[in-house]
UniProtKB/TrEMBL annotation:
It comes from the Bacteria. This is CobQ/CobB/MinD/ParA nucleotide binding domain-containing protein. The keyword Ion transport does not apply. The keyword Coiled coil applies. GO terms for cellular component: plasma membrane. It is a multi-pass membrane protein. Its main location: membrane. Residues 150-207 form a coiled coil.
């Protein structure tokens, strides 16, 4: 399918698409309004690095964000959450864990702790409480670590001092005894170690004094004035988008399972036959177009007549069959009106009611039901001398050229148009149409002076009469009422014609409902083309004749 086909599908079902969009959009809006609002508060913390720290460590920390990321993760660890949750009745650490998150500000020493709660004031309190509790935990841990380092340094200093005192006592004892001094170098080394430990301890104490707070609250949490959830605008837009997608999917699904035919283009795509003409659905009960009265379907039958003429450029179409897939699609009306417009064009036209199951042409042209017709004519072609002995059963085949069909052809009250009704309905229409007598009947038609013969046949599906007759005529016209026929019917009809090898010149879309944009039909009524003037019986001298020229 092309883009144009999809556009037609969506344009035909746009109310369904609009309904889906509105339902989903309004539904998302209503749900959002019914949801409990959630507020968000964030506290911003800074990881402070002082100059007292080792310079190489500072460079390492500044080169990466590992320290800030570590502190951000520790800020929402279980010890902090448990302590904070214990200060709020009805709040557990697991509940608080779902409400809290932390994130790092890239390329900075900042990170934030975010709390979402249905109470805006409590969200701000929780965020600040978490920050203060985390800072206190970190300060406590740092102080313990610093005290442990000082204790270790003090132990080293005391141990070194004891060694120095012991070595000095040993030197004094050796000097008293007059022994040589051999521990001067060792004493010097111990004194150097002692000085180093003293310097490290002093540096640690100075760093601790200058360091102050390692974590600082850069920006305390603020009470949110508007909720972050639900986002009514975003949810509504998302609902509209989902409704649009759902509507498109639903339309495509319906188009896939829909068996109706909605347009002439779709009909032509299914049948692979051209659409010769399109007739509008008329509100009047008069099915036939009267030459003296102008209707909107006049142009349609003129187009149909011209299309048939174009189809017979290489090989003239002298015999045509009009059929449909199902009953009630208006094939008899189309056949009758086509015959009328063929006659108005000056062609000697013979309209034959070949629907031997449910004939209707005698009613349309006000002919008596007991008039002899097609079945009588076929029977005549099987008798040796019908005019002399109409009741004898034939024993020898007669020459079809010697058979006159005038007794079965009746005037229709329109110049150049004659009608042959169905005649008595036979019990076996299919066998009658397949008989040799039917072949001789066609030979007899060739001898009459009709320029074009139009057969109105029974519906195709479920019956065999039409498919039999379609192989004997020059061309077949299919009438389709898009309000009745479905895709499987059309596909089955196309398959049957293809199997029989029948020549289908095209189809006529009948009873097409008038929709928007069809006002042009009424506008055309102001113009009187030359062809319409020619077809108008008021401008034709032959119309004033009481009877038309009889067919030979």
């Amino acid at each position: 399918m092309t883009f144009g086909h999809y556009w037609i599908i969506f344009a035909r079902r746009w109310p369904l698409l609009l309904l889906c969009v509105l339902l989903m959009g309004v539904g998302a809006l209503v749900v959002s309004l019914c949801m409990t609002p959630v507020y968000r508060s964030s506290v911003l913390l800074q990881v402070a690095i002082h100059s007292g720290t080792n310079q190489s460590d500072i460079n390492d920390l500044l080169a990466s964000n590992q320290l800030v990321q570590t502190e951000a993760q520790l800020a929402v660890c279980d010890p902090v959450l448990q302590e904070v949750a214990g200060r709020y009745p009805g709040l557990t650490a697991s509940q608080l864990r779902k409400m809290v998150s932390s994130s790092v500000k890239l390329n900075t020493q900042l990170f934030e702790i975010t709390v979402q709660d249905t109470d805006a004031h409590r969200a701000a309190l929780l965020a600040d409480d978490l920050a203060r509790t985390f800072i206190r935990h970190q300060e406590h841990d740092r102080q313990q670590e610093n005290q442990a380092s000082q204790q270790q340094l003090q132990q080293e200093i005391n141990s070194t001092l004891r060694q120095i005192n012991a070595l000095k006592a040993q030197r004094a004892s050796d000097a008293t005894k007059g022994q040589p001094d051999t521990s001067s170098e060792q004493l010097t080394a111990l004194q150097q170690h002692y000085n180093q430990w003293q310097s490290a301890l002093a540096q640690l104490e100075l760093s601790e004094a200058q360091r102050g707070g390692f974590l600082l609250i850069a920006q305390p949490a603020q009470v949110a004035s508007t909720p972050v959830q639900p986002d009514i605008v975003l949810n509504t837009v998302a609902g509209l988008a989902v409704g649009l997608l759902a509507g498109l999917a639903l339309i495509l699904l319906l188009a896939h399972v829909d068996q109706h035919v909605h347009s002439c283009e779709e009909l032509q795509r299914i049948l692979s036959w051209p659409v010769l003409a399109l007739t509008w659905l008329e509100r009047t009960t008069d099915a036939l177009i009267q030459p003296a009265r102008h209707t909107a379907n006049e142009d349609a039958y003129r187009i149909l007549r011209s299309s048939i003429g174009f189809a017979g450029v290489d090989k003239p179409l002298r015999s045509l069959m009009v059929t449909s897939a199902l009953p009630g699609e208006g094939k008899s009306t189309v056949a009758a009106n086509l015959a009328i417009f063929m006659a108005l064009a000056g062609k000697r036209t013979l309209l034959i009611d070949a629907d031997l199951l449910c004939p209707t042409l005698h009613e349309k042209f006000a002919l008596p039901a007991d008039k002899p017709g097609l079945s009588n004519a076929i029977l005549a072609c099987s008798l040796p001398d019908f005019q002399a002995q109409p009741s004898r059963v034939f024993h020898t085949v007669v020459d079809p050229r010697s058979i006159s069909l005038d007794g079965y052809i009746h005037p229709a009250g329109i110049p150049n148009l004659r009608v042959m009704s169905s005649g008595p309905l036979p019990p076996n229409p299919a066998e009658l149409l397949e008989s040799r007598a039917m072949q001789r009947f066609f030979q007899a038609l060739d001898c009459c002076d009709a320029e074009i013969v139009i057969f109105d046949t029974s519906p195709l599906l479920g019956l065999s009469e039409s498919i039999v007759l379609s192989t004997k005529v020059d061309g077949t016209i299919v009438v389709a009422d898009l309000n009745r026929v479905h895709k499987p019917h059309l596909q089955q009809m196309r398959s049957r014609f293809a199997q029989a090898g029948s020549r289908v010149i095209g189809c006529v879309v009948n009873k097409y409902p008038r929709r928007g944009g069809l006002l042009r039909v009424s506008l055309y009524a102001r113009y009187r083309p030359l062809e319409k003037l020619r077809d108008d019986p008021r401008n034709s001298a032959t119309v004033r004749q009481p009877h038309a020229v009889p067919l030979r």
